[in-house]
Amino acid sequence: MLKGLAAFAMRGRMPALLLTVAGAGSLLFCWISAAVVALVTLRKGAGEGAWLLLWALLPAGALLYVLGDSGPLTLLLGVTALAVVLRTTVSLPLAVLASVPVGAAVGLALMAFGGHYLEQLAAYFGEFLATLERQLAQGGGEPVVLSRPGALQIAGMLGAGTALSSVLCLLLARYWQSALYHPGGFGREFRSLYYPPAVALALALGAAALLGLGVQYRTWALIGLVPLSFAGLALVHARVASRGQGRGWLIAFYVAWLLFDPVKLLVVFAAIADSWLRLRQRWGAGAGTGVRRRDDEQDD
What we know:
By secondary structure, the protein is mainly α. It has 15 helices and no strands. Helix 2 packs antiparallel against helix 3, helix 3 crosses helix 9 (about 150-180) and helix 7 (about 100-115) packs antiparallel against helix 12.
């Protein structure tokens, strides 16, 4: 179904515009709009992507004005920025790394211009946690007090969420591009996602420094871990490919990754270890970068 959407979008300007505008005004389907903009940018250039983005900003801006939710707007801008980086550099690691300034910019913009929105979210979280505390205390045990997130913490959380969502939409667009024009290329490209030791160390130290500033900065630290998380996931895929394991193992891994925080940390540590030890070279998998040919990115 998703590949069919991509094929429809690439038929011309009007089909792409239809999908983009329809998704941009929806909280549930804005990711489709963002991925279509990224696909057009990757395939036809930044000019065509910018044209679609301008139209998509209309419903996304209306959603911001009516509901006060900036999510679709920031996602569209973030994914487009990553797509332009990928189109220009033909480097998936650099494009994923660009999610760090994108997430930081979103968080800082919310702190500067979205104070009322952050206060509303803090109030909603407070009400939810108060209800949860009452439910936990109904058993007759000792009262439970849960920590309430502040505006700074929520801004970092939204920035990290935008960085993560932007990378996911970019990967979806890259998968579409590969499926339509270079079958099998995306898998090789993703499995080779890797960061040199200096980059991995800088990201890890930056995240550790933010963690050391206190609880309110922990969500901001997550922004710096987004590239390492995807590099770690790529390492897992490379390992599965090197051993010839099936999709069932990957499904089980992703279930564990989604449910258990220690697994997320192990993935980050694995990415850092791979930066120094070059584990994929030892396994003999994911050696190539896959889709790096300029002809994939030229006009039809």
